[in-house]
Specification:
18% helix; 37% strand; 2 helices; alpha+beta
């Protein structure tokens, strides 16, 4: 019975991993202080509904790197003198003095969001 339960748990974890496609990210900058600090290691998932307040990993192909930011506006939200399109999001760092983000770059497309941060697993595990 115990073996069967372990097998079922393993199958469930494998199915979750295949669907969510988890990946790791290492925080390098200080734009998300106090929530995240340089050296924090994060577990992220690719398939997740994006909501206001989520911490996400954003690919900036024109700059050649990824950033970790917080979602502050969703499709349909007014931002400045315009309304975000159906595939647009505004992301910002928690520390505006250290962050290059939507305040300068403007909205990003859904395709640029690599995933949603689930938790920080190092140095001390906690949900973000």
């Amino acid at each position: 019975m115990r073996r069967r339960a372990l097998l079922l748990a393993g199958v469930a974890v494998a199915a979750w991993a295949a669907w969510q496609r988890p990946f790791r990210v290492l925080v390098e900058g200080g734009s998300m202080i106090p929530t995240l600090r340089p050296g924090d290691q994060l577990l992220c998932v690719r398939r997740r509904r994006i909501m206001r307040g989520n911490v996400v990993v954003v690919s900036l192909p024109d700059r050649g790197f990824e950033v970790v930011k917080r979602v502050t506006a969703l499709p349909g939200d007014p931002v400045g003198e315009r309304v975000l399109g159906e595939d647009e999001y505004l992301v910002e760092g928690d520390d505006p003095t250290r962050s290059t983000d939507g305040r300068e770059l403007g909205p990003i497309g859904r395709g640029d969001i690599e995933g949603v941060v689930l938790l920080r697993y190092l140095p001390d595990p906690r949900f973000v």
